[in-house]
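Page 37, continued from 36.
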């Protein structure tokens, strides 16, 4: 079995109390988490990144921290933005180009290219989301995540075979990048994606929110 990359994206969910409750549950499964044969990354909302990463350190958990977005600008007068340099103080990964950013905030490939460049410059590992084979993947990306829009949060995932076909084609163009599949992955179907040779991991929305469902998904892989 490969050592998969498992990325949980909490989106705009959770209060600080809920973050702490997730962390408490995670702490109770510390041995399992720290021995999990793969890399776990959790991307909390911005206000809780510090809380989350402090808890990870305090409990000595083998979980990496990611942000869900980053500014296309440097430090400076850009109200509401969080610069890559600031993200880097708390996180080692960043998701760029999630379908919800493209859809609700009209983020263009041109803008996303700037985000990826800034993130890379400060040494963040960039997880770049694409909806299909034709989406441009810019320089500076470490991991691409194939996530068809219709599969996200719909309970209707792409088939493992089709996801593998798309990812395989993308890997021919980007042979050094790791690949994820995202879109309605659950404990019941996660293995079918990770058994595809070209898929290195999964990006989870819903299945990462409750610790119990996240944990049972990890258990399905061991
Ligand atoms: C996502 O938001 O990237 C995602 C894959 O969500 P879900 O797992 O809920 O479909």
């Amino acid at each position: 079995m490969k050592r998969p990359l498992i990325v949980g994206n909490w989106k705009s969910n959770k209060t600080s109390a809920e973050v702490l409750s997730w962390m408490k549950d995670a702490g109770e499964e510390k041995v399992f988490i720290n021995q999990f044969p793969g890399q776990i990354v959790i991307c909390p909302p911005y206000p809780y990144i510090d809380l989350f990463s402090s808890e990870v350190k305090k409990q000595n958990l083998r979980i990496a921290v990611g942000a869900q977005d980053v500014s296309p600008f440097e430090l400076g007068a850009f109200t509401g933005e969080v610069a890559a340099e600031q993200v880097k103080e708390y996180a080692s990964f960043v998701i760029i180009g999630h379908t919800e950013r493209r859809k609700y905030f009209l983020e263009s490939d041109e803008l996303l290219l700037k985000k990826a460049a800034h993130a890379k410059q400060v040494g963040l590992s960039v997880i770049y989301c694409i909806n299909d084979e034709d989406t441009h993947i810019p320089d500076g990306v470490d991991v691409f995540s194939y996530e068809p829009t219709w599969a996200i949060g719909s309970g209707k995932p792409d088939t493992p075979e089709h996801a593998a076909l798309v990812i395989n084609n993308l890997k021919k163009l980007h042979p050094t990048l790791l690949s994820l599949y995202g879109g309605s992955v659950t404990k019941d179907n996660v293995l079918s994606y990770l058994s595809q040779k070209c898929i290195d991991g999964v990006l989870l929305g819903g299945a990462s929110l409750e610790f119990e469902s996240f944990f049972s998904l990890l258990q399905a892989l061991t």
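The CA atoms of residues 36 and 222 lie 8 Å apart. Flag for discussion at group meeting. Residues 9, 147, 152-153, 182-185, 203-207 surround phosphoenolpyruvate (CB under 6 Å).
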